[in-house]
Amino acid sequence: MKLVLASKNQKKLVEMNDILSHLGIEVCSEADAGVDVEVEETGSTFEENSLLKARAVMEASGLPAIADDSGLCVDCLSGAPGVYSARYGGEGLSDEDRYKILLENMRGQLTRTAKFVSVITCCFPNGDVLSARGECPGTIAYAPMGDGGFGYDPVFFVPELKKTFSQLAPEEKNAVSHRGKALESFKEKLEEYLK
Ligand code: IMP
Description:
about 200 residues, alpha/beta, 5 helices, 7 strands, about 30% helix
C-alpha cells in the first residue's frame, strides 16, 4: 500500500518509512505523487492541522495521504511554541535560529520540562480517517548537543537516555520519539482497518 506524505520534510519521510515499511507500506513524497500542495495551518490544535494537511493532499492526489503535525510544548512557556513550532520566531529562519530563540526565551528558567507531540492522520479517498497521537517527555538543555536529526533535536534532552534527540541514532530516536509512538499506534489502527 502506498501513502502520500503531506509534507516537504525529507527527514519526516525517512522516519515514517523506517517505521511503516515493516507493514509493507511505502510512504512517498508529494513530488513522487505529482502534487505540490500548500496548506495553511490555520488550526489551533495538532489534530486540526494534521487533518487539514492529510485531507488536502488526499484530495489533490486521489491517493490515501498521511500527515504528521508535530511540535514542541515547553511548560514554562505555557506550551509554546506548540503548533507554531515550525514558525517560531518568524518566517525565513533556520532550525538553528529557532532553537537559539527558544534558549534565549528560556534564559534563567530552572523548570525546563517539555514534551514533543505528534498527531498522525491518514485520509482515504472514500472519506475514512484514521488518526493517532504520540508524546515524548523531556527537558530543554541549556545549550545544543549533537548534530543529528532536525528542528529542535539538539536542545531536546531525554533524561532516561541522558542524550538529546540529536545525539541518538535514528532507530534510538524512533523508539522513544513522539512520532515513533504516534506511528506505532497508527500502525495498529491501520492493521485493524485493513483486516
Ligand atoms: P510541522 O511540519 O508543521 O508539523 O512542524 C513541526 C515542527 O516542529 C518542525 O518544523 C520542527 O521545528 C518541530 N519538530 C517536530 N518534530 C520534531 C522532531 O522530531 N525533532 C525536532 N523538531 C521537531
